[in-house]
């Protein structure tokens, strides 16, 4: 199963309804399983939250600027999607630690200097599994104590980190798919 990785240079807000089947196709012209990254503000109102725990608590998500990783994956289960999400979050944390940041993880959340650095969700649609991972660049406006990468890292380092994370994710995807087809079955 192939994966397309795309980094948009266009700034675009994330408001929640982007987490829908075929958004990547309709917005970026990419068919099939894909993950795209773009920068922009985030404002997800309660009505657009996918996480029932947050929705029932009447929460919302906001930040002045995030880097958004939006994925759509075909032919997998929701459980596999959560594993993909956790791998992406772990890889993001490892790459930030390699840059000297003391990042911690709890489930699918990242923390920096006692503030929440990320938001993430995975859900299923009738045709695919959808993923959003937002990493705060400028956490201003967040409804919780939050942290951002701007100020902690230089702009060029952040840009390189985004590209390296996408590249690593793509390589892991390819490696996992190869691992599923190169083994002799046991009967």
Textual characterization of the structure:
It is a single chain. The protein is of the alpha+beta class and 187 residues long. It has one domain (4-174): 2-Layer Sandwich (BirA Bifunctional Protein, domain 2), CATH 3.30.930.10. It is built from 4 helices and 8 strands. It has helices at residues 23-28, 52-56, 78-98, 155-181; strands spanning 4-7, 34-44, 61-73, 103-106, 109-112, 115-116, 118-124, 129-138. The protein has a 5-stranded mixed β-sheet with strand order 1-2-3-8-7, covered by helices on one side. β5 (109-112) and β6 (115-116) form a beta hairpin. It starts with a strand and ends in a 6-residue tail after the last helix. The mean pLDDT is 97.
């Amino acid at each position: 199963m192939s994966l397309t990785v795309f980094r948009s240079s266009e700034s675009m807000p994330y408001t929640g309804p982007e987490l829908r089947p075929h958004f990547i196709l309709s917005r970026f012209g990419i068919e099939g399983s894909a993950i795209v990254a773009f920068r922009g503000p985030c404002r997800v109102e309660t009505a657009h939250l996918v996480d029932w725990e947050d929705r029932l608590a009447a929460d919302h998500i906001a930040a002045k600027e995030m880097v958004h990783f939006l994925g759509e994956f075909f032919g997998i289960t929701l459980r596999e999607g959560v594993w993909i999400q956790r791998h992406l979050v772990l890889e993001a944390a490892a790459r930030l630690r390699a840059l000297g940041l003391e990042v911690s993880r709890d489930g699918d959340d990242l923390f920096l200097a006692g503030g929440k650095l990320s938001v993430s969700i995975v859900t299923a649609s009738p045709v695919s599994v959808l993923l959003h991972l937002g990493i705060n660049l400028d956490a201003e406006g967040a409804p919780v104590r939050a942290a951002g990468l701007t100020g902690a890292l230089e702009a060029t380092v952040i840009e390189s980190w985004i590209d390296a994370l996408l590249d690593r994710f793509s390589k892991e995807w390819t490696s996992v798919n190869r691992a599923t087809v190169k083994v002799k079955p046991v009967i």
